[in-house]
Design goal:
Layout lengths: L1 E4 L1 H9 L3 H7 L1 E5 H8 L5 H11 L3 E4 L5 H6 L4 H13 L2 E3 L3 H10 L3 E2 L1 H10 L5 H14 L4 H10 L8 H4 L1
Helix pairs in contact: 1-3, 1-4, 3-6, 6-7, 8-9, 9-10
């Protein structure tokens, strides 16, 4: 199955060490704008992982023109707009953790998945341990822009009812 990743999910998956698992299960595509946004800091660990997966042909780069009206109406960056355009045009699932992009997907009828969903699926399939899942969720809390409720719900799904989002502790 092919999925399109936007910058937000691509970077979060790289930072949490989930990107290799995702590219092992899915044919992953990103737009040129997403590649530019996610790899411009070449010394960053996430960017290095992304560049390596592109070089290894685990992530395919696609060229597509963004739908300008979608970009403007939903206040999206070029990466999100081109990713939605690609997913919409080819009826693919979009991996996004960007709130505006998620709202656009809901309105436009584009199926989407988040980085947390990938962690939960990998845990459910036994590909990562409970401790790894918990660490990845806590890292998503640290690096992402998730609400406390979303993080706590994810922790509950892996059976960690006592742990809380770092955001709720401050």
């Amino acid at each position: 199955m092919k999925i399109v990743l936007d910058s937000s999910s691509l970077i979060l998956l790289a930072k949490t060490g989930m990107l290799g698992i995702v590219t092992g299960h899915f044919e992953c595509e990103i737009t040129e704008d997403v590649k530019r946004e996610s790899t411009h800091k070449k010394d960053c660990m996430g960017a290095k992982a992304i560049i390596k997966l592109i070089e290894d042909k685990k992530i395919e780069i696609r060229r597509i023109n963004p739908k300008r009206d979608v970009e403007i109406e939903f206040r999206l960056g070029k990466g999100e707009a081109t990713s939605i355009a690609l997913a919409l045009e080819e009826n693919k699932i979009l991996a996004t953790d960007d709130k505006a992009a998620i709202n656009a997907c809901k309105i436009l009828g584009v199926e989407f998945i988040t980085a947390i969903d990938f962690v939960l699926k990998a845990y459910k399939k036994g590909e990562i341990s409970h401790e790894e899942a918990k660490n990845k969720i806590m890292n998503l809390d640290k690096y992402g822009r998730y609400s406390t409720e979303i993080i706590n719900r994810a922790l509950e799904k892996i059976g960690d009812k006592n742990e809380q989002s770092n955001k709720s502790k401050t």
